[in-house]
């Protein structure tokens, strides 16, 4: 099926013809079509994102309601978000950064393997890179970037015993972008690209031996039912964001734009703090330890992270992540890696 036909089918099936109308300037309540995170990803979607859009008019102070649906309830792949936005099918999207990086490699500059080993560094990456990314998304996909937030450190879950990265040699490992795939190859694993919703079954059936995601998302989706070990070494921060179609954004008055941006700034800051709380709690829950207040208790072996593996991931930025990504990104967006070095590279000391 061609992409055009696919998008047409989605549009027809979901009756997504309502966009932001000229009534935005009046005080009529306008319904914005919003694509949310997969419900399967857990508590950030459930406790922060969905309530924000459910109470959208109050949160923004604007006469807009949000027709919010999680992406997994819409029948759209999370790799197609930029395409459906460009086609005008939605007004706002909860953008999955790595998953859409094949359509726009510039996105991945926000989340290179090893570039953000902790929340403080991840925030530096976001603040230094968001303007360049916003400009690129506006130009290529006609969407305005409203903010970026992290699910948190993406760690390893395996159904076979592991004590260090080298133990992944010969194992099939679920990945979600090409940068992570290249890193897994470098330590001897075989990367297997899978969407989040496919992972539980794939682990259960032995399609993969290990999989990478955040501790809280793994807990919410019951990955510890089908794995035995967790290795809390963060490879990436699983950056996600909010973007609005330029068609919808440009129909807002300057005051409305200011209120809209302020509301998303508040939401994003709230998620940054919540994500950090969830991460440590979920690591405890997955291993059946206290305190465990946000998730379900399981009995995973919590493997101590070696200093050598931390160093391997840290060095991967300059030796693997940046060169691999730069080659791809510069082909579609000349000057892409140079812009990254001037912004993110300068902020985190990588050239």
Walk me through what this model shows:
InterPro entries: DctP_fam, TRAP_DctP_sf. Helix 2 packs antiparallel against helix 10 and helix 6 crosses helix 11. The protein has two domains: 190 residues, D-Maltodextrin-Binding Protein, domain 2 (3-Layer(aba) Sandwich); 143 residues, Bacterial extracellular solute-binding protein, family 7 (D-Maltodextrin-Binding Protein, domain 2, 3-Layer(aba) Sandwich). The longest helix has 33 residues. It is of the alpha/beta class and 351 residues long. The protein contains twelve helices and eleven strands. The strands form two sheets. A six-stranded mixed sheet has the order 7-6-8-5-9-11, sandwiched between helices. Strands 2-1-3-10-4 form a five-stranded mixed sheet, sandwiched between helices. The radius of gyration is 20 Å and the shape is globular.
Name the descriptors:
alpha/beta, D-Maltodextrin-Binding Protein, domain 2, six-stranded mixed sheet, TRAP_DctP_sf
Specify the oligomeric state: single chain
Q: What count of helical segments does DSSP give?
A: 12
Question: How many distinct folded domains?
Answer: 2
Q: Care to count the β-strands?
A: 11
Protein name: TRAP transporter substrate-binding protein
InterPro entries: DctP_fam, TRAP_DctP_sf
Keywords: Signal, Transport
Family: Belongs to the bacterial solute-binding protein 7 family.
